[in-house]
Amino acid sequence: MTEGPESQVSESQIAVHWREEEYYYPPDKFIAQANAADPSIYDRFGEEHFPDCFKEYADLLSWDAPWHTTLDTSNPPFWKWFVGGRLNASYNCVDRHAAASPDKTAIIFVPELESDARVEISYAELLRQVNEFAAVLRDTVGLKTGDRVTLHMPMVPELPVTMLACARLGVIRSQVFGGFSGTACGHRIADSGSHVLITMDGYYRGGNLSDHKVKADEAVAAARAEGQEVEKVLVWRRHAGQYASQTPMVEGRDVFVDELLAGHQGATVEPVSMPAEAPLFLMYTSGTTGRPKGCQHSTGGYMSYVAGTSKYYQDIHPDDVYWCMADIGWITGHSYIVYGPLALGTTTVIYEGVPNYPDGGRPWRIAEELGVNIFHTSPTAIRMLRKVGPEEPRKYNYHFKHMTTVGEPIEPEVWRWYHSEVGKGEAAIVDTWWQTENGGFLGSTLPALQPMKPGSCGPGVLGIYPVIYDEDGHDVPAGSGKAGNICIRNPWPGIFQTIWGQPERFVDTYYRKYNTDPDSTDWHDWPYFAGDGAVQAADGYFRILGRVDDVINVAGHRLGTKEIESAALTVSEVAEAAAVPVIDDIRGRAVEIYVSLKPGFEPGQEMEPKVTKAIETEIGKIARPKNVWIVPDMPKTRSGKIMRRVIASISNFADVGDVTTLANPEIVDSIRHHVQSMKVANDDVPRDLTEAEFEEIKRFGAE
Ligand code: 6R9
Questions:
Q1: CA–CA distance, 529 with 516 (Å, rounded to integer)
Q2: Which of 117, 314, 460, 496 is deepest in the core (most CB within 10 A)?
Q3: Ligand 1: does its nearest atom lie under 6 Å from the Cβ of 293?
Q4: Neighbouring residues of 214: CB distance < 8 A, sequence distance ≥ 6
Q5: Phi, psi (degrees; rounded to nearest 5) at 488
């Protein structure tokens, strides 16, 4: 087989072919009120002022004791921020605002059903709820500082109440995305060593009240299989006095939270003064190999970083009505629904359901009704809302001063719809690039000071010095037109502290690649490897090309190919499995999985649903493959490695490149014929790939 012309396109050619987009400038009205409108801010955060520049962020918080060392680099790359300082995250998000403006609305909860009334929770009321639940956790459940507890909860106000109650006690919580399966939750319970699971009986999604508590039983069983016993399951109820689940409450283990709260009415719990370096929470995310990693975030550094970036990049003022339509089960929701907005004492909106329920006008109705003026969402949601209701935003009278996009690259065309239709041309937009590991934004424009460029996140944010390295550690300069690995040269307060229980994996995954001297205690020798490909234009703006590891970004959610493949391998007939991305117009990428069966098993009708079910059980519906292809064998190298790039090319109708060196080149044509003819028959042919997408597919799974 000969190489197609496309397969010879290099990364640098792609970058050159990328059309430079025009700048868009923020409206004067926005600039006039912006928190960061004076260019002197660049000087304050200039590299010569590192690390002390971050005092400006830390000063947004109330500290019980001041820090003596801003950045301790003595044990690299385990950086310590604000050492000696003490504070409590719940005090900072609740008590101080409840004291200053008790009646101010902290949280507006919008239930998914439009017939259900919204719930407004003032700071004084939030303080009461957090105190009472903290009393339950401490006095009835027996949790103490340093214990881990797993939360598997939907988008309801009880979730921030639970998070803040844990923070009040210095209990480390791990929030598992509500859409993950019970089994996935159980793995995370076991990894974190939690003895307590906090969940809810059910919640609304797409108009239906789902049974969520059933997942708790699966989670407890999955954790037990790994030797971790869950002693207590605390169940919040979506509707007072009712029970949305089919599964019985287990005697001695399961308790309704409202029944526990009844014994703690009016209780107050003194916030525990925590060292800045104490872990605040764990957030699991997917990586190249093995099980998800529990990213451990600090109290002082993390809180400072989210407060500072919320102020300057989200432009949050106390009087704003801020709505981030992400899920609190992901880092975006953690940092920019709960901690950042509440630390700044603003009003944060929590919406329970899906954006298009019951129709594509829902978000804009919510915005109009609540007077939302800052809106934050993902490209997947924008693409979906644009598809289901391109004219919908015009029908509603709301005015966003500021909008965010996060989680995946956004196509310039989609960006422009967001700007002109959703933003009505009145809003400044920030495209924020960052990761679960980072606590807060890494790349973005400062909304009043730097113009927007569709498809590019912008330069490094204040106090972050990104660099692009090639594989050998040489700088790839701005404007060179070449792509490489984006790294951050310096530590910052929001960076995670370690992978829970796996410090070597932390060093190996994020720092080993570009560290020049393992004995050095100089941070300059420890660039952080983000795992994303990027290209930097002459103006210093970065365009993020996507993951360089085996992670598929589905609708902004990171799914490890290995996790999906291991789930497929739980089906007893399956011998081998390979997961690959396909370009998807709404979700950015979707997953397809190729499966070969053990000898003696014939591919029957039942295999595809079986594999899909296994993936849903092990991970959750978000990982559900678009297609399961049963193949007689996988294309392999002579050393037996599955060539994921070859099957990814087949799924995407891209040129498979040179396959002559494979151990079984003849299999490629047979798989291609089978898969592509089925896709044509099912009207499932992906659109033509852009060059960048083509390159991504061609690179996929490469060592
Ligand atoms: C916050 C969050 C991280 C990965 C990241 C990158 C992709 C995030 C992006 C973006 C292009 C942006 N990503 N923001 N790609 N433009 N503005 O999403 O965290 O779930 O850990 O995902 O998402 O590939 O490495 P997380």
A1: 13
A2: 314
A3: no
A4: 182, 245, 246, 247
A5: -110, 125
Q: What local confidence, expressed as pLDDT, does residue 173 receive?
A: 97
The three-class DSSP label of residue 88 is coil
**Ligand 1 pocket: which of 406, 554, 587 to mutate (most atoms within 8 A of CB):** 406
Amino acid at 662: L
Any ligand 1 atom below 6 A from CB of 589: no
Rounded distance between C-alpha atoms, residue 173 and residue 149, angstroms: 5
Whether 320 contacts 367, CB under 8 Å:
no
Output the CA 547–ligand 1 centroid distance in Å. 9
User: Which parts of the chain sit beneath pLDDT 70?
Assistant: 1-19, 702-703
Q: Prior bond to 358 cis, omega within 30?
A: yes
pLDDT (0 to 100) of residue 702: 67
CA distance 9 to 12: 8
The predicted-structure confidence for 574-599, as pLDDT tens digits, reads as follows 999 999 999 999 999 999 999 999 99
Q: Which residues contact 252 (CB under 8 A, 6 or more apart)?
A: none
The pTM of this model reads 0.93
Give the closest residue (by CA) to ligand 1 atom 18. Answer: 407
Q: Are 612 and 669 in contact (CB under 8 A)?
A: no
CA of 433 to the centre of ligand 1 (A): 6
Quote the pLDDT of residue 18: 57
Q: Give yes or no for a contact between 457 and 435, defined as CB atoms under 8 angstroms apart.
A: no
Give the model's pLDDT for residue 17. 52
